[in-house]
Each structure stands twice: as structure tokens, then as C-alpha cells.
Amino acid sequence: MRTLLLAAFLACCIGPALAQSEGEPAPAPDTAPVDPPLPEKILLPPPPEAAPTVTIRKVENGDTVEEYREHGRITMVKVTPQRGPAYTLVDANGDGKLDRRDAEGPVAPIYWTLYEWD
User: Fold this and answer.
1) Cβ distance 68 to 79 under 8 Å?
2) How far is the CA of 90 from the CAs of 27, 43, 76, in angstroms?
3) CATH of domain 48-112
């Protein structure tokens, strides 16, 4: 009896598996190699004419003033006093004028040079 039940059970389980049709095989995916996209163009460094021009002058009190200009506009001024550390004033928004912020009062922002090397 057990053999008959086992055969009937296997026939029920195997029947649906055998009933599936083979059909056409699925098409193979494109196996052609895909080239990676080209990298961005590398920008060359600016020509030497685009470098800022530096004007160094001595003021009557002995201070040295270095003015850095790009395309005729002042971008930075470095002041080296006769006594005391050097400081730098920077044109933050590119309008050619050294900027002052009203919140800071009448004093322009000063950037102290802590360390320099050649």
C-alpha cells in the first residue's frame, strides 16, 4: 500500500514538471563590449600673460606695499610695515576695490601671514 501511495504522490508531483513546454530559448543579451565614456578635457594652465602683475612701492613712512592686479583690477594688496608683521587686504567680490563690511566697522578685513616659504 505504501508503494502505491508513493507512486501516486510522485506522479502528481512530476506531472506538472513534465507538462511545461520547452518553447524557444530566450535571446542572448548583447555581449558586445561597451566603451566607457571619454573623460573630460584637461584644461591647460593659463598662459603667462594671465598671471597677475605685481607693483611694489615704498611709502614715505617706510612701509612696503605690493599691489597684485589681474586685467587692470586690484585683487590683493600686501602691506609690510617697517615695524610689525605684514598683512594682506583682498578684493573679495572682484570689483577692483578692497571691500569693507559694515558689520566689522570701518576696518577692512586683514589676513596675517603666519608662515611663508619659497
Assistant:
1) no
2) 66, 27, 4
3) 2.20.130.30
